[in-house]
Specification:
This protein is of the alpha+beta class. It folds into two domains: about 10-40, no CATH class; about 50-130, Translation Initiation Factor IF3. About 35% of the residues lie in helices and about 30% in strands. It is built from three helices and six strands. It has helices at about 25-45, 60-75, 95-105; strands at about 10-15, 20-25, 50-55, 80-85, 110-120, 125-130. Strands 3-4-6-5 form a four-stranded mixed β-sheet, with helices on one face. The protein has a two-stranded antiparallel ribbon with strand order 1-2. A hairpin with a 6-residue loop joins strand 1 (about 10-15) and strand 2. About 15% of the residues are buried.
Length: about 140
Amino acid sequence: MADALELDLVEISPNADPPVCKITDYQKFLYQQKKKQKEIKAKTVQVVVKEIRFGPNTDDHDFQFKLRHAEKFLKEGAKVKAYVFFKGRSILFKEQGEILLLKFAQELEETGKVEQLPQLEGKRMTMFISPKKKK
């Protein structure tokens, strides 16, 4: 039948019982599959993570400056990874770093939600904030 119509016999699902075949133009079939794959790829959302670094003794002006950047990142749809980096003996001020990150999260409450609370990993205390869904 496929030869009579000058088309190809394409096996759709070989594992079925009996196997399913379709009479179609094979090149057109391949083209449509590539098109579907492209559509699926276009619909996937890339998650971007922006980092903001603080010191344990970050001043208020620097804090506000970094806060505005974080708000901009969240409005663009990126996640924000805020971290306090302790170098040398500043590791003694762990509480100060945690207070700083919690204050940061509180300021960003209307644009983002906390994904992971401050957590100490080595010399870094990190926290993740993801953008809120638009309604």
